[in-house]
Each structure stands twice: as C-alpha cells, then as structure tokens.
Amino acid sequence: MKSRLRDLSIAKKIWLLVGLVLLFTLAGGFVILHSKKQSMEEEKRMATKHIVEMAVGVAEHYASLAQEGKMTAEDARARTMDVVGSLRYGDGHEYLWINDMHPRMVMHPIKPELNGQDLTDYKDPEGKAIFVAFVDAVRQGKGGGYVSYMWPKPGADQSVSKVSYVKEFAPWSWVIGSGIYLDEVEAAFWTDLSRLVAWAVLILCLVAWIIHFTVKEINRRLKLAVGVANAIAGNDLTTRVDDSSRDEIGQLLIALRTMQMNLAGTVSEIQSVSDVVGTASREIATGNADLSSRTESQASSLEETASSMEELTSTVKQNAENARQANQLVASTAEIAAKGGTVVNEVVETMASIKDSSRKIADIIGVIDGIAFQTNILALNAAVEAARAGEQGRGFAVVASEVRSLAQRSAGAAKEIKTLIEDSVGKVDAGGRLVDEAGHTMDEIVTSVKRVTDIMSEIAAASHEQSAGIEQVNQAVGQMDEMTQQNAALVEEAAAAAESLREQAMKLAEAVSVFRLNAQSGTARAPVAVTGIVPTPNAASVRKLALPVIEPVSRAHRLISGDRRKRSAF
After folding, report:
1. What's the whole-number mean pLDDT along residues 332-336?
2. pLDDT tens-place string over residues 267-308
3. At what angle do helices 394-512 and 547-569 cross, to 10 degrees?
4. CB neighbours of 153 closer than 8 A, spacing ≥ 6?
5. Between vectors from CA 31 to CA 28 and to CA 37, what angle results, nearest 5°?
6. Is the N-terminal amide bond of 548 cis, ω within 30° of 0?
7. Fewer C-beta within 10 Å: the chain N or C terminus?
8. Spatial distance between the Cα atoms of 307 and 5, rounded to a whole number of angstroms
9. Distance CA 298, CA 291 (A)
10. Lowest-confidence segment of 194-208, 250-264, 389-403 by average pLDDT
11. Is 289 within 8 Å of 494 (Cβ atoms)?
12. At what angle are helices 394-512 and 248-389 packed, to 10 degrees?
C-alpha cells in the first residue's frame, strides 16, 4: 500500500487528499446532523411529556374540586375531557387523548368515533397493539413512559412514525397521552443533509477548479525541473531555467540552476586544469630528462671531486705534520734566542760596569795630574827658595829639580794614561752602544721568534682543523655522490610519474569533453524534455581517472621528502 501511494503522481495524491478531506467532512456533517436529529427528537419528547403532565395536572385540579364537593365527579371528568381535548401545541397538529386501563377510548379529539370503543385489538399498520402498549408502558414505567408506533396525521390517511408519552391518572384509572410525529424531524434532517451535500458539492467544484489549475502549474514546473535534471544527467549543461517564484518548486529550480552553473563552472575549470596539467606534465617530463642528464654529469663530477679530495686530504695531513715539526724547531729556536738575549743583556751590563770603571780611572788620573801639577809648582817654589839660599840650598835645589823632573814625568805619564783612558772610554762607549743595539736586536729576534712560534702553532692547529674539515668534506662528498645516485633514480621515477600524469590528464579531458557548455554550443538552448534519467557511464570513469597516478607520484614525493630531510640534516 505504501509503495502504491509512493508511485502515485502528485496530482493523484492531491485529488486523493481532497477526496479524503471531503469524505471526512461529509461524515462529520452527517454525524452532526444525526446528533441534531436526536436532539430535536429529545426536545419534542420532553415537550410532549410536559404537555401530558400538564393535562394530568388539570385532571388533578378537577378531581380535587370534586373531592371538595364543589362539583360532581361526572362534571369533573367532563370538564377535564373538554379542557384536555381542546389543548393543541406545536404547529396545531399535536393533541392529547384519554383512555382507561382496559383499554377503552375515553376521549379522542381527532377521532371521536373511537370514544367508548374497546381498543384492545386496535393495531397500527405494522401490527402493533398501540393502546395495549400504552397501558403496559404505564404499568411497567411507574406511571408513565414512551411508546413508538405508526399513526396518521390529522386530515391524512397515510400513517407516519409517531412517539407518544402516556401517564396514568390513578384516581380515575385514566391514561392521558400525547404524541409527536417524527416525519418533521426526518424531513428537517434530510433537508439539512441535502444542504450539506449541496454545499459540499459546490465547495468540491470550487476546490477542484482551484486544484486543477494548481496541479497543472505544479506539473508544468515539475516537468521543467525534471527536464533540467535529465538534461544535466545527459551531460547537457546549456539548458536555461527561467523561474522567479519563491515557493518550494521555485527554490528547487533555483537550486537546479545553481547546481547547473556550478557544475558547468567545475567542468570548465576541469577542462582548463586538464590542459594545464597536460602542458605541465610535458614540461616536467622535458625538465626531468634534462635533470637526469645533469644529474649523471654531476655524479661523474662528484666522483672526480671525491678522488681529488682524497689527494687533498693526504696533502693536508702531510702539511699538518710539517707544520708540527716546524713548530717544534721554531720553539727550540725561540729558547736559544731567549738564551742569547739573556747573554747579551749580561754583556751590556758588563760594558756598563767597565764604562763606569773607566770613568773612575779617568777621575783618578785627573787627581794624579793635579798632584803632579802641584808637585811641579812646589818643586819650582823649592828651587826658587834654594836659589835664594845659595850654597845652602844647592842640595835642596837638586832635590827640587829631581822632584820637579819626576812631577813633570808623572804629569806626562798621567796625560798619556788619561789619553789612553779617554780612548778606552770612547771605545767602551762605542762598545756599549753596539752591545745595546745587539741587545735591542736580540730582543726583536726573541719577539719575532715568539711571533713565528705563535704563527707556526696557529698554522699547525689550522692544519689539523683543515685536515679534519677535509675529512668531513670528503665524507660529505661521498654522501652527495650517494644522494646523487638516489636523485637519479628519483628523476627516472618522476619522469615515469609525469608521463602517467600526462596520460591521466588526457583521459580526464576526454571524460569532461562529453559535457556541453555554453562556450562550446553557442547560446543556451530552451529547456528540453527528457523522458527518463540518462545513464552517465563517464561519471564513474571520471572518478577512476586519478587512481593509477596516485601511487607513483606519492612514492616519488616520499623519496624526495626523505632526500630533502637528509640534505637538511647534512
């Protein structure tokens, strides 16, 4: 059942819904009218009961007057029958009658020929003994009750459905009753039902007219949406969607138009990208070929570089050993130069002491020369005095002359010694200056030797570091040679991946070429109607196009990334 409803068209579903609503409306109206009918019958029953009870009240009134002696019992009964027989209610057709418990008719205002007759065998057209039923209703209903039967209306021969209420007046053994005809209630019920049906038919016609045009418009727009969807399914992206409404179908058409535009843009972009990818893959292939040849050339150059670095390593090690030995020789030379400097400094100090001693000797010679000069003067004075003394002083004169001669000789010797000492002092001064210069020269030699020692130490340390660096460079060159070999393999794989990428780009271009776009087919066409969903086998092939190229490209990417990490670590 659910599948059948699902397969129904929208128009049939709407008509089915309207039919169900109308059916439920009619059913509800019928229930309401039936309830109204029962309510009307109940009102008439209650009204009849009240009339009968009022008539019983009249009988009680006259019976009380008879008991009080104000009138005879016969007059009371006669007055009661007159009053009750004259009572009318409703539309003038409803009346009251009186029969006794036998039953005999006591008073009937419409059919007086029944008065005094035995009504035990009086039956309605359906065979019901109605007056016997009245008596039974009184006896069984505690003095009163309702009875349904068939009875003709006043002035008519055809019997209709009637319900009477009867009540016993025990003092006189009467049964006072009155009934209502149900044909009026039935007529009112069927009149209301006819009106309900008429209004329902009118509303149905109006709703059917509205639904007809609504369903027609819905079908038209749904056919438009289905046509657009089928056209898109048939790889036609040029169908125009012209609808400006804002209802659900309008939103559906807007969504289809947006999907069509986005899909057209995506397909156009895929076509452009596939062309770019094809061109790029060809360029990559060309670049990979060039890179492969350069990588091979680089590998051979690295091999030559590695052999040269090995020779350079041995040469640097030999230079480092020579620098170490030279450093040791320079260190011993520095020690000898330092000792020579110390000796020269001692010579300088000795020359200075000799120079001081020469100066002291010169001073002593000066004192001796002064003494000789004074002695000469004293001898001269002694000779003068001896000459004055004459003969007595002749011996003293000879001594004075000898002393003077000694003084002169001493003065001459002192002059010679002074001259020699001055010459020695001059030579000592010259020797001192030469020794000082030799001392400064030795200091400079010692300083230079220390500087040479430091330089040779630095050269030896640098040679050692150079040797270690050359060894690391040699190892790095070996690693570069190994990585170059790996790069060559990666380049070959990248070339294969680029070729596969080019082929996949060609397949992708072929897959999207089945779509018709405005740029290819000119102006957009009017909406087309397609009876069914067009199968699109190329859609699956489009999803499968990129699968074969994923593995080689991703593998090459992993290898290249690992190579980059090695280079960055190096």
Report:
1. 77
2. 888 878 878 887 887 788 788 778 778 877 877 777 778 777
3. 170
4. 93, 160, 181
5. 140
6. no
7. N
8. 89
9. 10
10. 389-403
11. no
12. 170
Domains of the chain plus CATH, in order, are 9-211 (3.30.450.20), 250-527+535-569 (1.10.287.950)
DSSP 8-state symbol, 98: E
Q: Is the pLDDT of residue 403 over 90?
A: no
What strands lie across the sheet with 144-152, from one edge to the other? 105-107, 96-100, 174-181, 159-169, 144-152
**Which tokens in the block code for residue 64?**
């009380």
pLDDT at 518 (0 to 100): 67
Distance set, CA 217 to CA 10, 245, 257, 540 (Å): 12, 12, 19, 36
Spatial separation of the C-alpha atoms in residues 222 and 249, rounded to whole Å: 7
What is the C-alpha separation between 334 and 443, in angstroms, rounded?
A: 11
> Locate tokens 């640098």: which residue?
462
Angle at 119 between CA 117 and CA 124, to 5 degrees: 130
pTM, two decimals, is 0.36
Q: With H, G, I as helix, E, B as strand and everything else as coil, classify residue 99.
A: strand
Distance CA 280, CA 274 (A): 10
Token representation of residue 165:
């209420």
Helices and strands (H, E) in the chain, number of each type: 10, 5
Q: What tens digit of pLDDT does each residue of 91-137 get?
A: 777 899 999 999 999 999 988 999 999 999 988 888 999 999 999 99
Cα-trace Rg, the chain: 78
| Model pLDDT for residues 299-319, shown as the tens digit of each residue | 777 777 877 777 777 787 787
Task: Specify the amino acid at residue 152.
Answer: P
Q: Coil, helix or strand for 237?
A: coil
Amino acid at 285: A
